[in-house]
Each structure stands twice: as C-alpha cells, then as structure tokens.
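Entry 12.
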Amino acid sequence: MQVRYQSTPDRVLWQLRTTEGELFAVWLTRRMLRLLWPHLNRHVTLAGVARLAPNATPASVLPEAQAMLAQAARERPLPGARFDEPFDNQVVVARPLGPEPLLPEAVDLGPGADGRGLKLQVRELGGRRMAMTLNDDLATALMRLLEAALKEADWGPASEPAAPSQPAGPIVPQVLN
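Predicted 3D structure (tokens):
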C-alpha cells in the first residue's frame, strides 16, 4: 500500500497492490479526506484501544487518560509493516479499475463482518468501485500513511488526529459523499 500527495493535481494518490499483483489506484481529494478522516480516525483509535485495553469500558477510563490511551492506540507497533520500503508498482499483473485512478464520489466505511477490521468501499459516479476489508493493523497503517500525506499536502486542521470525543461504542457503517 502506498499513499502520497501529488502537488500538480492537488490530490492524494492511494495505491494498493494485492498479493496476486493487481494494482488498484484511488485519487482522494481534499473534500473526500475531510469527510473520511474523522470516521477513519475514530474507527482505528477505538480498535486500537480495544487491543491495548480489552477489558476497558468508557466508564473505567479516566477522562484524563482517554487522550493518552487514544494516542497509544494510534501509535501502537504494527508487526510486518515496512514504512521505509519503497512501493513497487513494476510487478503489476492487472489493473482491475483501468489505467486511470478511481475518483470517488462516495466512501462507505464500517466495521468488518465480525466487528473487527475496517470494511471500506469507494465508489465513483461512473460506476467503478473498489471494496475491501482491512484488518486492524492494515487500517492503522492506512491511517498513518494518510496522515503523512496530509502533512505533506498542508491542507489544514483536518489532518490532526483527535481523541474520540464520544464514549467507545459500536461503530456503525457510514456513507460519506
């Protein structure tokens, strides 16, 4: 997976290569990232908190400790993640979305089937779409990559992660458009 800011079109390019060698590419505009970021941040933070403190409930965590626990959840180690390794888009078997990156008009976001992971679908007005389920580690990696791209883009305060302001509860699917 690679996420990088492209200054000429003023967009973020998210590329994902499967183990079978398929390459998926999606443009993320400033508007789409402003819509997506709070929900992605909340989901990743709550999933990370659940892993760090599995028996914690909203009432059992002191308000002073919530921000610290949320930060620890977002910064937790990701086994197998190699952020310093360059993205290899030379070994591509197929481009299921075609040669041009998908430019989504809507994103469907919610928990995976068993309540773990992140179910994500990006949809374009013309009918192209990409759907996937990321495990908690990949969802956290995506958030970190997006955060780095947002810092490079310098698009403003939407790039700053925040602790979830609501108590941890079930995450419901969201449609962002």
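Annotation: The helical segments are 30-52, 63-74, 136-153. The chain has one domain: 2-160+171-176.
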